[in-house]
Amino acid sequence: MAERPRVGVIGAGIAGLTVARSLQTIADVIVFEKGRGFGGRMATRRIDGVSFDHGAQYFTVRDQDFRKEMDQACGVGLVKPWTGDVVSLSVGGPARHVVPSMTRYVAVPSMTALPKAMAEGLDIRLASRVAEIGGEPGRWLIHSGELVEGPFDWIVATAPAPQSAVLLPASFSHHETLREVGMHACFTLMIKRNSRVREPFAAAHVSDPVIGWIAYNDSKPARTKPASLVVNSNGVWADANVDVPFDAVRKQMIEASKRHIPIEASEAESAVLHRWRYADVHNPARQSFLLDRDTQLAACGDWCIAGRVEAAYVSGLALADALNGIVGQ
Questions:
Q1: Which residues, at least 6 apart from 1, have a Cβ–Cβ distance to it below 8 Å?
Q2: Bridge-partner residues for 274, per DSSP?
């Protein structure tokens, strides 16, 4: 009986988990994740007992395969619509209601709940930062710390395009495409509200030189109280300040937030900042995935299509379908 092929997947975000789930019936799959948890930018952080979705704020559904997946998740209470009022804000102007063109969904009780469910039954190595991919086609080795895993028939990189470009060997034929992908950075400010006074909206798209989004995290289904704010920088400003010391970034984001909503001194003092070096896609690869049959290397992620949770799923599923036709032969 022939041995099952082995596939190494780098990254346990939505794309990586989708690839791993889809291939596990035909291959032995190991997922390597540098973080301590699943989900990538589907992230939630708890601070003093209060939860903050500090990555993806919500997601929408267009693709039929993703819709089937989300219908099942909704059916078991893992995903729910977020029906809170979303407005647009500008300095000195009134809040204007934004009519949603699509239903906004969130995982419950936190955004990490969905990737945690997707990860069930998978072989995932957390806190495993991949430093190098060595070996040769069909016998790839993954170097993580002092450990060497392999050999693998195929390697799939699902990290952001700039990070995948660093990891994938020079022989990978799609490096030019990886270099052309553009991704904005993002800073996320997490603020625990002390005041009982709150704005009459759940979230806001903000027209401001520094920030682009404000959301009451507790307005989402099944979130913890008390009130908690998530403030995202805008991408252009984040790119220009990505290596600025956190204290300076935090101060500027707090001052920018005060232009739109009141923030008490004690709230500002306890605010926590997170940096996403690669967050939002502004120049995607414009193809569902990158695959090189000669080297047996591949890459996928939201950056292939668009900066959406759904795009990560669609990219991962498309690559898995292609690999099923190759690896499963």
A1: none
A2: 188
Q: What are 309's two structure tokens?
A: 């949770």
Whether residue 153 contacts residue 7, with contact meaning beta carbons closer than 8 Å, is answered with yes
Residue 253 token pair: 């984001």
Most distant CA pair in the chain, distance: 72
225 plus 252 within the same structural domain: yes
Please check whether residues 172 and 306 belong to one and the same domain.
yes
193 shares a domain with 254: yes
Phi, psi of 23 (to 5 degrees): -95, -10
Q: What is the pLDDT of residue 152?
A: 98
Judge if 52 and 123 occupy the same domain: no
Inter-residue contact 53 to 110 (CB < 8 Å): yes
- pTM of the full structure: 0.95
Q: Domain with 205 in it: what CATH number?
A: 3.90.660.10
Q: Per residue in 286-328, pLDDT tens? A: 999 999 999 999 999 999 999 999 999 999 999 999 999 998 6
**Tally of domains within the chain:** 2
| SS3 state of residue 64 | helix
- Do 11 and 62 lie in a common domain? no
Asked if residue 233 lies in contact with residue 187, where contact means CB atoms within 8 angstroms, the answer is: yes
CA-wise closest residue to 308 among 113, 102, 35, 86: 102
Which residues have a Cβ under 8 Å from the Cβ of 20 and sit 6 or more positions away? Answer: 7, 9, 29, 31, 122, 124
Same domain as 270, residue 186: yes
Model pLDDT for residues 221-242, shown as the tens digit of each residue: 999 778 899 999 999 999 999 9
Domain span at residue 8 reads 1-38+119-180+285-329
Measure the CA–CA gap between 176 and 161, rounded to whole angstroms. Answer: 11
